[in-house]
Amino acid sequence: MGQTTKSLNEKQIAFIEKQKLYFVGTAAPTGTVNMSPKGGDSLRVIDSKTLAWLNLTGSGNESAAHVLQDPRMTVMFCAFEGAPLILRAYGTARAIHRNDPEWAIYSVLFPESIASRQIFLLDIDMVQASCGMSVPFFRYESDRDELDKWSAKQGEHGIQRYWLKKNQTSLDGFESQIAEKSGLKIDE
Questions:
Q1: Does any domain span residue 169?
Q2: 103 in a structural domain
Q3: How far is CA 94 from CA 42, 120, 123, 159, 164, in A?
Q4: CA 106 to CA 129: how far, in whole Å?
Q5: What are the tens digits of pLDDT across the range 7-65?
Q6: Helix (H) and strand (E) counts for the chain?
Q7: Of the N and C termini of the chain, which has fewer Cβ atoms inside 10 Å?
Q8: What is the domain count for the chain?
């Protein structure tokens, strides 16, 4: 049924580039496993062995905290139209923050947003393609604009205050290093 390879092929890259929704899975050695749906124009295939995705501000910061504990990450795509397919990219990830030198290299690949929190780079170790015959058909209508509206209302300083209040630790209490890596002072 499933086929595994060490990297993405051209057909898989074309499939990924058409997707409007993908899922990111992370876990620390202990505690909760996190699975986050992602959308918008937030993922890039850098090459057959590397994915980059833009992590926008949200109610938690599980991926960042988990990757610091254990860099394992899985990114999953599902065909919701056309031929059935589930595609998973497994590998090791790291977060790039606004103050990191690599931010300038990768941030230009994505639309500008004050909600931009981190960019994750996934170095792919294995790709698995499986049937996905039980995944239902869905139609894409549009991207949501609530995060854009909320972010604009908060402004850059409001977003940073939110990071300090809501994004410093995971559900299990693991540090995300958002304040340190973004150059924010805890008492702001």
A1: yes
A2: yes
A3: 16, 6, 9, 22, 21
A4: 27
A5: 999 999 999 999 999 999 999 999 999 999 999 999 999 999 999 999 999 999 999 99
A6: 5, 8
A7: N
A8: 1
